[in-house]
């Protein structure tokens, strides 16, 4: 069984990963399937695999208009600034996936990581199809209808556009704080 979990910097995505690791079907990723089942599923590996995918937004260096005595000029970020931003994005992605890999190692689950660049909802659906994923798992931020309409929902998009079953893990219920 090949499972893909989308990871971002939200607690909800790590909750979804923890849910995957804590539930019984995670055993499918540690024990090798019978040879006939693996051949029928079209997988060449002897056991399941968990893929952790993080999609970072592409950095678009924009020009900044500035007024001067000669008129309006446009200033663009230097190559050093662009390099610095991209390096920072890579470090953030690596840290997120490292945290997720450590969670998998603690449960003795075999996992691989992917870092992609682009629109998260499109890239997650594309890569899940390319990799013949059996199950796509995404966390839900719990947006209301209005916020979801304006901000969009990666989980909602994946549920409707991914070519594999998609499991949306809702965040845990918030504890009611008691005022004593």
TrEMBL record:
Domain of life: Eukaryota
Transmembrane residue ranges: none
CDD domains: USP_At3g01520-like
One Pfam family cited in the UniProt record for this chain: Usp
Gene3D superfamilies found in the cross-reference section: HUPs
InterPro entries named in the record: Rossmann-like_a/b/a_fold (IPR014729), Universal_stress_UspA (IPR006015), UspA (IPR006016)
Segments forming domain UspA: 2-170
PANTHER family cross-referenced by the UniProt entry: ADENINE NUCLEOTIDE ALPHA HYDROLASES-LIKE SUPERFAMILY PROTEIN (PTHR31964:SF124)
UniProt-recorded name of the protein: Universal stress protein A
Highest classification ranks of the organism: Eukaryota, Viridiplantae, Streptophyta, Embryophyta, Tracheophyta
